[in-house]
Amino acid sequence: MKEDKFDELGPLFVKLVEIVARLRGPGGCPWDQKQTPETLKKYVLEEAYEVFEAIGEEPPLAVCEEIGDLLFLLIFIAYLYEEKGEFELAHVLKLCAEKMIRRHPHVFGENALSNPEEVVAQWQKIKEKEAKDKGKKSSVLGDLPKALPALQRAFRLGERASRVGFDWEKPEELFPKLEEEIREIKEAIAQKDEKSLKEEIGDLLFTVANLSRKLGINPEEALRHSNEKFETRFRSMESHFKEKGKRLKEVSLKEMDAVWEELKK
Fold first, then answer.
1. What is the spatial distance between Cα 150 and Cα 156, in angstroms, rounded to a whole number?
2. CATH 3.60.20.10 correct for 3-102
3. Where is the signal peptide, in residue numbers (predicted)?
4. Which of 30, 33, 153, 173 could form an SS bridge with 168, CB 3.0 to 4.6 Å?
């Protein structure tokens, strides 16, 4: 980034903060004035997912807009804490900058590293030291947010466990595990054991997430693609019968299967 670009960033960032202050201040927006960090939590996830969806699928300008929405929301939440005197936005920026410098000694210090694997190992050691300094129990698994989509969290848990060698060597080694989980699901169904069935379904999904990881595929993205594919085909099938004056409830499964197979081709 050119030096003159840095000069532009300061005033633009301040302008966003001023907009938040205006919205929250006298004569501002009634909706914005009612918000708290708790009421805005759900929007953080929504905006983050919109950024996620835009990347790689939308034009760069759309990605730019979605990043702006998320950035503004984060500034808004930080401002709410500043209003209550709990911390200031400047403190957020200061802590973030200090953390990034501390976790990149190979860039900002003299500890040269030559590959991404070394960087990840060093990052983990630094995080462990930070946790210890704060009196927290450190773990290789870290503190993955429980609000993450469960499939993505399973992927990341397996990824982190693999850093210490707790992993299958080859993807093929998971096939017996998949067969075992499917067998246990069948047993739970036969025994009409709802609690066990729920647990075994979870174990199967966890195994699938790890198989995906071993194959270099993010299971969350793979499932998202399959969801979209299913939705597109189903809507097309729906339109097909609608054009014939039929509702899906009036169509047999055999007829739907025939159209579905055509759509797959």
1. 10
2. no
3. none
4. 173
Summarised one tens digit per residue, pLDDT across range 236-252 is 999 999 999 999 999 99
> Per-domain residue ranges for the chain?
3-102, 152-215, 220-264
Res 15: pLDDT: 96
Mean pLDDT of the chain: 93
